[in-house]
Amino acid sequence: MPITTCIFDAYGTLFDVAAAARQAAGEAEFPHLQDNWADLANHWRQKQLQYTWLRAITNAHADFWDVTQDGLDWAMEAAGLRGDTALRQRLLDLYWELQAYPEVPAMLQALKDAGMNTAILSNGSPAMLDGAVQSAGLGGVLDDVLSVESVGIFKPDARVYDLVGQRFGCARNEVLFVSSNGWDAAGASGYGFVTAWVNRAGDPVDRLPWKPAHIMADLTTIPDLAKG
Predict the structure, then answer these.
(1) DSSP strand pairing (5-8 vs 175-179)
(2) What does the angle CA 177 – CA 47 – CA 128 come to, to the nearest 5 degrees?
(3) Of 9, 73, 113, 144, which one is the catalytic site residue?
């Protein structure tokens, strides 16, 4: 069955989650971040994701913004930056203005030109996602932004992936699901989506029961993949 609907994870897939720490490190107020911003960004992201999994399996859901702040607090303490309230606030402010990866606008426009449905499916809260979409200027090339907040549990729970069919009325094998998270692509593969893992870092494939159908270094070739 041909692909009719292209669904994207947001953070790390369309939006560069390292951008906040990288930008802050270049600002005069935070010279102490210049040498360790990459480690801070990595630890922040890893804890953010780990907390979503733990909250999902323990039925302790929280807004993704709370999880994001918890992850940052852990990462700052690990980096010896606990108590730097000015840096903490700056990083959180910048997270609402994450940059899209350079190829994203043209890629989404090509999908729309080909008649595809396009949407985000994310752990992010509606307000966070709206801020990122508007900041990156992507509103005109997305049909919808779907948040886990409507079901109250984080990915990779099947109830999150159910949101796509409920919104677009499409069969699972009509959906190309794209994520930068190997575990997310694996979960979506198990659900029945056609999946693409955007493996920008060249990481190994996760040892899980399911694997992504496609692996790529960036999003440039997604329109060709969707058209078959």
Answers:
(1) parallel
(2) 60
(3) 9
Is 16 among the residues known to form the active site? no
CA atoms within 13 A on the CB side of 209: 5
- Of 45, 211, 193, 58, nearest to 123 (Cα)? 45
User: DSSP letter string over 159-198?
Assistant: HHHHHHHHHH---GGGEEEEES-HHHHHHHHHHT-EEEEE
Helices marked H in 96-148 — which ranges?
104-113, 126-136
Please state, in angstroms and rounded to a whole number, the distance separating the CA atoms of residues 187 and 205: 13
Q: Which helix (H) or strand (E) holds 34?
A: none
Q: Which domains does the chain have, with CATH numbers?
A: 5-15+99-227 (3.40.50.1000), 19-95 (1.10.150.240)
pLDDT tens for each residue of 163-218: 999 999 999 999 999 999 999 999 999 999 999 999 999 999 999 999 999 999 99
Q: Which of 71, 70, 86 is nearest to 32 (CA)?
A: 86
The span from the CA of 110 to the CA of 104, in Å, is: 10
In single-letter form, the type of residue at position 105 comes to: P
Q: What is the pLDDT of residues 132-154, one digit of tens each?
A: 999 999 999 999 999 999 999 99
